[in-house]
Structures are given as C-alpha cells and as structure tokens.
Amino acid sequence: xxxxxxxxxxxxxxxxxxxxxxxxxxxxxxxxxxxxxxxxxxxxxxxxxxxxxxxxxxxxxxxxxxxxxxxxxxxxxxxxxxxxxxxxxxxxxxxxxxxxxxxxxxxxxxxxxxxxxxxxxxxxxxxxxxxxxxxxxxxxxxxxxxxxxxxxxxxxxxxxxxxxxxxxxxxxxxxxxxxxxxxxxxxxxxxxxxxxxxxxxxxxxxxxxxxxxxxxxxxxxxxx
Length: 224
Fold this sequence. Notes:
Layout: H1 2-41, H2 52-65, H3 69-80, H4 85-101, H5 105-115, H6 120-131, H7 135-143, H8 167-176, H9 209-214, H10 216-222
Helix pairs in contact: 2-3, 3-8, 4-8
C-alpha cells in the first residue's frame, strides 16, 4: 500500500513537472513569435525607388477612383499602405526623383503664370499637383510647359497639391508607427531637394514679357 502511494505521488509529480515545462515552452514560443513580428516591422535604410510602372498605376487609379483632391489624397494613402515598408519608401523616392527632374526655370515660369505667383514651397506643391495628374500629363508638361494650358480648369485659381507630398509618409506612419524619412539612405539617394541645382532665371516678373518668351501660350491666355 505504501509502495502504491509512493508510485502515485511520483506519477503526479512527473505529470505536473511535464505540464509546467510545456507551459514555459509555450510562453517562450509566444515571446519568440512576438519578437519575430517586431523584426518584420524593422527595415534597413533604402535608396531604391518604386518601380515606375507601379508608381504611375497607383497614381492613375487615384485619378480614376476619385473626383476631388481630398479624396485622391486619402485613396493614395490607402493604396500605398498595401505596399511593403520598403516599397512605401520607394514611392516617396520616386516622387522625389520626379520633383528633382522638374526643378527648372521654365516650369517655374509656367507655375508662376498659372498660379499668379509661385514661391519656393508653391513650386514644390505645383509639381506635386502635376505628378498627381498622371504620367501622360506629367511628361507632356515636363517637355513643354505650355502644355499646361490643356490642364487649366475654368474657375480654378490654385494649381497645387500639398497633400501629395505627404501621402507616402502618412501611409508608412500608419502601418509601421515609424517616420519614413528615418529610413531613406541619403548617402546613396541624392536626387532630392537638398541637391537641387542653383537656377539662373532668364525671366523676370518685373518684366512680364520675358515670361512670354518662355511660355507664350500660357502668358497670352492666363497672364493678367
């Protein structure tokens, strides 16, 4: 009888110890999984732009699916959130490259005419507006600023899209709770506003006719 009690106690002890080990292992596994999930959010700095076709597809879809700038901004953020963190950074870098490629005196003249004035910041947001009009419009105006006349809307006084400048940053923040700019490799990605060329203007607002030389169609139809 005594031996049976000892065997029963030993069996209960071993069972309890085994269950305890299993619980500890389960807890360790849960912790490990949490750490792994945390690591998936972390991402190395990147200098890689998003594929241009994918970039323009997102922009073109935002045009098709919305009817005003506010909704377009929200649509863009929602679509960019579907990308990986690296691709979100890439969307921002592609935008920076397009802004860099259009930082020139001729387009600034066009922006000045169409908006009735154009500061440094205004020129940035004007080019954001232009990008948001889609690939075809962007490249036509890039090659010939006077092509802006085809994008003029009756009654519209301002051709800027400040919110477009922030869509990738907002999407990245929403998905990772991190700041996108902290993950840009600026040593490798140099086509950004920190490296804009110094412009020498051949037009002068105090001599409006000089603006007409740069953008004759816009000047004739819009300058007051």
